Every structure is written in C-alpha cells, then in structure tokens.
Amino acid sequence: MGLEIAVAAALFTGVVAYSVLGGADFGSGFYDLTAGGTRRGAELRRQVDHSIGPVWEANHVWLIFVLVVWWTGFPSTFAAVATTLAVPLVLALVGIVLRGSAFAFRKYAATLGQARFFGVVFAASSVVTPFFLGTVAGAIASGRVPAQGDGDPWSSWTGTTSLVGGIVAVGTCAFLAGVFLVTDAARAGKTGLSDALRRRVLVVGLFTGAVVLAALVPLHDDAPTLWAGLTGRALPLVLLSFVAGTTTVALVAVRRFGPARWSAVLAVASVVSGWGVAQYPWLLVDEVTLAQAAGAPATLQGLLVAVGLAVVLVLPSLAYLLWLTQTQAWSGAPEERAVSAGPPPAPDARPRRR
Description:
The chain has 354 residues and is an all-alpha fold. A two-stranded antiparallel sheet has the order 1-2. Helix 1 packs across helix 8, helix 9 crosses helix 10 and helix 10 crosses helix 12. The longest helix is centred in the middle third of the chain and has 32 residues. The radius of gyration is 22 Å and the shape is globular. The termini are far apart.
C-alpha cells in the first residue's frame, strides 16, 4: 500500500468519525429548535444540554484532524477546495463558532430574553452548519471543483448533488442525535420525554431514508462518476447502510434504544464510507487522483508518524470520555442522586445567639 493510500485512509477515518460524533452533536440542535416554547420545550432542552455538554468540544477535534491531515498530505487539493468553495466553508465555519458560543453563553444568560436569543442562535446554526458541509461534499463528489481552484464561487456548490448532500447531512445528523437523546432520556427514567422523542426520531428517520433513496435518482446525470461507484464497488456499503438504518427505525419503534445506538452509528458510518469508496481513486472527482495530489514522501511519512502518536496518546482519552457519557457512569447517576437527595434543607432563619 502506497503512502498516499495510508494517509488517505487516516483522513477518511477522521471524516467518518466527525460525521458520526460531530453529526450527533449538530443534530441535537434540530431538537432544540423544534422543542417548542420556553415552558413546553424546557425538559427537552435540558436533555440536550445534559447529553452533549461533556463532549461537544471534543467532537470537533475530528474536524481539526481532517483539516490538518488534508492540507499537509494533499495540499494542492485543499487549496483548490478552499478557494472554489470558500463561501460554504466560511458559512460553515461561522456556524460552528456561533453555535459553540451560543451554547456556552445560554447557560450564563442574565435574562430570559438573552437565553432565548442564544438558544435560537445555537439551534439555527446547528442546522445550517451541516447543510453547508454537505454542500461541500456534494460539490467535490460531483466534480465541480477544478484542480486549479478557479471554479465558480456559487454554481460550484448549488448543484443538485450539493443541495441533496446538504439536506441528507441535516437529516442524518438529526436522526443520529435523536437516537442518542431518546436513549439518554429513557435511561434517566424520563418516560414522557422518551416517548415524545421516540415519535420524532421515527418521523425523522423515515423522512431521511426517503430523501436518501430519492437522491440516488439525480446522481445518475449530475454525478455520473459517483453514481458508477455507488452502484459498483461501494454497493455493499450502500446496502449495509440501508439495512442498518431500517434496523434502527425498527429498534426505536419497539423501544430497544440501546442497540439502536449502534445500528444508527453503523448506518451513518456506512453511507459516508460508501461515498469515499465510490469516488476512489479520485480526491477531486474527475480532476485529481490521490497519487497526483499527494505531497512529498517525507511529508507523508512524518504525517503517518504523527497520526500514530495521536492514536496512542489521544484516542484512549476520547474513547474513555465517550464511555462515560454513554453509560450509567455519567448519564444516569448525577440525576438519580439529585432526585434521591430531595430538595436542599431550608436555611435556619432564627437569629443566632452570641
């Protein structure tokens, strides 16, 4: 296996990880946005804060990893994408910054009006950001990014494949986040909230599945290279994603939320992996292959050493953090202790004798 293949594998592993972990993070904003008014949506918004609070910053480590590996290992294609797709990339970046800031500021808002404002910013940017990231992926997959980076700044990311990619990105994020949220709510004993979330997850899952299937139709003409790959070497991954997604919907319907988390992760990971396998060996479809875009061998070797060190030093910590948030060690114990402890005792108002 060539050095460029090994670096590309590390790069796309980061893309899959960000799609799953960052996707669940972004998708929580959809439920925050559609939770309802201040009083009606309070419980759901508290659940969103509780579920993503410990991990929302850590999830974006994968985006940094992807960008660093990309511009170091395949610098010319990174420059081409950053130039041609500057508009959606900047909008996605602004969304990430606004989302993180609003999520933090909402907790310390001095008034209800401020809390509502930051809540709207957090929820709206959580939906807008994956949409623009999806349009970037669609532009690359449909061959609209020239190797010279001189593509049209608007039509390059507003084609059919790009727009469908943005919608699918929002839908998959919402579906994945919903499965995690309903699992956390059920584990905490919030029966009413878990039932409401369950109904929403089923609707979102069916809608997203329908959009994904419908999206395959225009790909034949709008992205023929991607279509050939999806119906060829990547077909097993496409079928696996369909089976995993259908299984997730069925498990949620019968309230088997624990196993549904794993099948949901498998569904998203499979569809993203299918995209990568389908466009191989192109990095910029119909423009530049992996071998043509690769940097100097010494650079690729040093990059692989850095990736190996990250796997040894960083990955165990991230895995432990995810284990804490997805087990009783984090999600259930704090709330159960608060409930069992009851309200704090009233302060003694009697004057003390001197």
